[in-house]
Amino acid sequence: AMLRLRLLTWDVKDTLLRLRLPVGHSYAAEARAHGLRVQPEALGRSFREVYGAQSRRFPNYGRGQGLSSRQWWLDVVKQSFRLSGVQDEAALTRLAEKLYRDYCSSHNWEVLPGAAETLSRCRQLGFRMGIVSNFDNRLEVILSQCDLRHHFEFVLTSEAAGFAKPDGRIFEQALRLGGARPEQAAHIGDDYSRDYRAARAAGMHSFLLRAAGQGEGPEVPPEHVLPTLSHLLARIEK
């Protein structure tokens, strides 16, 4: 059956962009530049623990609790280093500021294979395009730095929306921004519950980017699964 699609919305992390290095390795390299020795693996474990706790305590970058996303991230970075044994508060502040800036750039992010070509082709086919991402307000800059921003009519982050996926209200905002009804729109992402299932719950079509041999997740109809982004075009060609 032909999908009558007008709007495509996209997740970003691990759909269009990925980190060049694991967080622990990037943080440890930056620490070394400040004369501090920290084990990348230990730092990675600390980061995951701190990030999880901060996300539970202050969801969506503390947006509803009077925290700026910048402060939210500076706290995460500092606590990750503290948990890994770094005590020097002045060094922690410098490190946190530097890393907050560094994650704004293509220095730390790379475009996934096939992403730029697929986005160009979708635009050539006349689809309206937007981003729907659980991200803070640095995302516009990151997408520009990675030369992807021009593909999209809008960039909707959870920080700007006030709701994070899988909350259906972020998809409702995206549909308004894209001027489309749910059945005229499809969302593409790599997370089963936040992307695939949440978009469908909002009445949209959706496709799950799931590399072959990537863990056994919940059952998804094969025609909704994308082994790579370049498979999208066959699914939606007008």
Helical element count?
A: 11
The CATH homology group name of the largest domain: HAD superfamily/HAD-like
Number of strands: 8
Percent of residues in beta strands? Answer: 5-15%
- Which stretches are low in confidence, meaning pLDDT under 50 for 5 or more residues running? none
| SS content category | alpha/beta
What series of H and E elements makes up the topology? EEHHHHHEHEHEHHEHEEH
Pfam families: Hydrolase
Organism: Gymnorhina tibicen (Australian magpie)
GO cellular component, one term: nucleus
Protein name: Haloacid dehalogenase-like hydrolase domain-containing protein 3
Q: Mind explaining what this structure looks like?
A:
This protein is elongated. Helices cover 46% and strands 13% of the residues. Strand 4 (128-133), helix 7 and strand 5 (154-157) form a beta-alpha-beta unit. It folds into two domains: 7-16 and 112-234, Rossmann fold; 21-106, DNA polymerase, domain 1, CATH 1.10.150.720. With 238 residues, the protein is α/β, with parallel strands linked by helices. Helix 2 crosses helix 4 (69-83).
